[in-house]
Amino acid sequence: MSSYKDKKVITIGIVHELTGISERKIRYYEQRELIFPDRTKNGTRKYSFSDVERLTEIADMREEGVQTYEIKKDMKNKKKYKDVREDMLRGQLNAHFRMRK
Question: Domain HTH merR-type, which positions (predicted)?
Answer without folding.
Answer: 9-77
